[in-house]
Structure formats: C-alpha cells, structure tokens
Amino acid sequence: MQPILDAFDARAILPEDGVAGALAGRIWRPDMSGPSVVAVREGTGGAPELVDITGAFPTIRDLCETPDPAAALRRATGETVGSLDAILANTPPETRDASKPWLLAPIDLQAVKAAGVTFAVSMLERVIEERARGNPDAAAAIRLEVGRLVGDDLRRLKPGSPEAMALKSVLVAQGAWSQYLEVGIGPDAEIFTKAQPLSSVGCGQEAGLHPGSQWNNPEPEVALVVASDQRIVGATLGNDVNLRDFEGRSALLLGKAKDNAASCALGPFLRLFDGGFSLDHVRRTVVSLEVSGEDGFRLSGTSPLSEISRDPADLVEAMMGGTHQYPDGAVLFLGTMFAPVEDRGAPGQGFTHKVGDRVVIRSPGLGALVNRMRHCQDCEPWTFGAAALMRNLAARGLLGA
C-alpha cells in the first residue's frame, strides 16, 4: 500500500504563505495520554514547529469562543513540542512511533455539519444518482437527459428567487423535478450532520469507506468553523466522503452514506480569520483534488468557491439562525462542485474509490489535506470521545483554564 505522506513534508501541507497566518491544530501527546491544542509557528532556523497552548486553551472550542481567536492564538504561550516535519511524519498509523506525538483533526467539541447541493454541477449529479437508483450503469444516459432539460442555467440562478421558482414549475411539468433540485434552487438549503464531535480524522491519517459501497467518491470542500454566537472565525479543508450508491437508492439513507467511521477528514490546520485571511478569501478560493490509486489511476479536478449557489454566510445562517443552538460551536462543510464521472473501469461505470487511494485536497490559503482510503473497519478505531477528553483534561488540571 502506497505511503500516505510520500513526498509530503511540512512545507507541502502548509498554506502558500507558510506560518504567516493564525494556524491552530491538535496533536496527540502520548506523554499526556491525550490531545493538545497547538499553534503552528516559525521555529529556530525557520522550520515550522508546534507549540502546545493547551494551558491557555484546553480545547479548540475554547479558542474559537474568544472575541478575537486569531489574536488570542498569537498571544498564547506554551511548550514547543517539536517540529511540524517530525510530528507529521509520525502521523501515518502504519509507521507511527506510539511514544511520540502525531497530528489530529484541528477541531474537537464542535458539531460537524455539512451543506449539500450547493453547486449546480454536483446538484445535477445528485439528480442522476436519484434517478439511477444507485446504479452507475444507468448514469451516463440519465446525465445526458438531465443536461438537456436543465443546461447551465442553474449556475446563474439564485436559490429561492422568482426565476428559480419559474424553472421549478417547468421541471415539474416535464416530470423532471427532484428532491435535489428542491434544495439546489429552492428556498431552503440542505444542512445535515456529517459526523460526531471528536470523530474526524486529520491530515496523514486514513479515511474510511463503507465496505458495502460500490460507487463512491471524495468531496473536496472548505469547512467553516463557527462560534456559538454565529461568528465565522476560521476555515479548514475537508473531505465529505460520499457513498453515491447508498444515497442514490434513497435520500433517507443519507446518514448511512455520510456518517461512517473515519469518513470525515479535516485539516491540516484551522486558519483563523484576521486581516490577512477572511471569509472573502474563502469566497474566492479554489479547492483542488488529486486522487492517485495503486492501480496507476489518476484523477484531478477543481472546485471554485466563486461558483457556489448560496453564499457561505447564508449557509451558516441556515445552519444556526434562531432555530438551532450550538453551545460548543459548529463546523460547516460548504459543499463541492466536483462530481467525478471519468470511467475508472468499465465504460459507463464512472469513478469510484479503491482501497489504497491517496486523496490530496488543496487550497492556497489553507494548505493540503492528505489521506489514504481504507474500509471503515480497517481504519484506526475511534475510542477517545467527549467523556475521555473531560477526564483527561481534569487529570491534567486544565478544566479550570
């Protein structure tokens, strides 16, 4: 099986401006038998290093709840744990020295939510999934039919607008309406729960595929980190791993298609908003994807956030608004326009993952998230939940911090 981090070092996973931004993350510290919050900073000789600031902020959630998280991160002092190169290299499970630190996902107690069908291209693919009933053999013909009916008009439509409602009426009359079109151009965004708090995997770890799925794909996305008072405080990269056959059979299987062991990847770090990086930078960013298989297969693509149908702030409003409370904040995947249709095997079968695929998701301002795909039951088991975290922090005398 190909190494997860082959040719990847600290510089390769950091944003283009290195450690200039306010970068926060989490590592597992074996000497503490638990996780620590770290700041990514320039060390001696210019090499990036990780500084443990858990004494000031026991959780990422606590950091995000401050009035100015980026400034708070820069003020925080703590112990230098090691170089980013060394800790990153120790992260892949097959080569890890369990006595040394490794990277974790850069969030902890936040709810992990996702917005679906936020791009026209991916929306059409969801329509195809639904009409094909999860059968990739039927997808090619249906893709042509749906494209003939809808074309590219949806890229210019504002969801919920009179123009969108007029198109809805036409599609209903032609028998082509779909629940995916409803959330794609209708007034209400699709917001669902992606994963449990603390269950996400980080950069350099393995991401999970349900063993029963035969048609699936990565979903490269930006994920916003939101405080409990609805302030959008930062962003990271994510892979909203999707099982197209499960969801295609029935939208009621969305939970099974989305929430599986190790199926939510986030990282490499949380970049907190400041004068040099803001929500406007997210709106303009381009997320790229590279998939490399052990069979020699290669796939690449991009997802420009500028083509999103709903503004990121509107999606956060739809997630929280006045009807939901998240006392520990939330993380929101913004969706993707990347829906791979390139055949990997037999003609018409389209793309699906194979065990061992390496997935690299990049963005200039957020760095690179690197994972390798395995079946869920073969990934590292998740055993350290909220109760374990509270006991660990209490034993370290950090709960009063």
Automatic annotation (TrEMBL):
The lineage of its organism: Bacteria, Pseudomonadati, Pseudomonadota, Alphaproteobacteria, Hyphomicrobiales. Pfam families: FAA_hydrolase. It comes from the Bacteria. This is Fumarylacetoacetate hydrolase. One of its GO terms (molecular function) is metal ion binding. GO terms for biological process: small molecule metabolic process. InterPro entries: FAH (IPR051121), Fumarylacetoacetase-like_C (IPR011234), Fumarylacetoacetase_C_sf (IPR036663). Gene3D superfamilies: Fumarylacetoacetase-like, C-terminal domain. Keywords: Hydrolase, Metal-binding. The keyword Hydrolase applies. SUPFAM superfamilies: FAH. The keyword Transport does not apply. Residues 230-373 form the Fumarylacetoacetase-like C-terminal domain. Belongs to the FAH family.
